[in-house]
Amino acid sequence: MVKKQENQDIVLTAEAFIDTLKELKTEKELKKLEKYFKGEDKETQALGVKFGDVFKIAKKYKSMSIEEIEKLLESKYYEIRMGAVSIMDYQAKDKKTTPEKKKELFDLYLRRHDRLNNWDFVDRGAYNIIGEYLIDKDRKILYQLAESDDPWERRTAIVSTYAFIKKGQVEDTFKIAEILLYDEHELINKAVGSWIREAGKKDREKLLAFLDQHGKSMPRVTLRMAIEKLDPEQRDYYMKLKP
């Protein structure tokens, strides 16, 4: 029997998902997306579909099997892989999803991280698929990712900690930020600044202590993002530490 999504005549296959997306592509959107992808591989191509449409279609296919999702991850098209991550994200945060299925999603994300080779794949999926899964588990995998040669795996390490931050747990964010503090990749610098800023909303003293220790030497873009929500006087103080 062909598996269908509840109350809808949608065949939950990678092929059907791709066919649906292709109906929405436009030349105008193609030109936009070709400038948006920051990965360095020579394979990835843009299909020309608005991400808002990708997310809407992904939600309709959110009951897709792990096997079919992995087929989407194999695609050379940017938006199709974003669709795969979005389906995974919808499943991971669905209260009806079993712990076993969440483990499968976690494993798939990490096993096929080679296909998640842009900052927005990470930002779309890491919070729910990785971070939320690790809330009550050993988090050493994040420290391993933080030491990876792959910048997107390093970004996953810090972005995933947002799940912990939301629960008032900020230690891992600051520890991983220290590992990544002098990263050579600007999009890692920005992520570190953004996530220690978020951690600072939960624990202002830890943020200020981190800035007191590292503010003078950390990349300027990291510092700017980290101090964004501080009082004007505090922002001026930390910016003046920079040579």
TrEMBL record:
Gene3D superfamilies the UniProt entry points to: 1.25.10.90
Record-linked CDD domains: AlkD_like
InterPro entries (alphabetical): ARM-type_fold, DNA_alkylation
SUPFAM superfamilies the UniProt entry points to: ARM repeat
Pfam families in alphabetical order: DNA_alkylation
Coiled coil ranges: none
Protein name per the record: 3-methyladenine DNA glycosylase AlkD
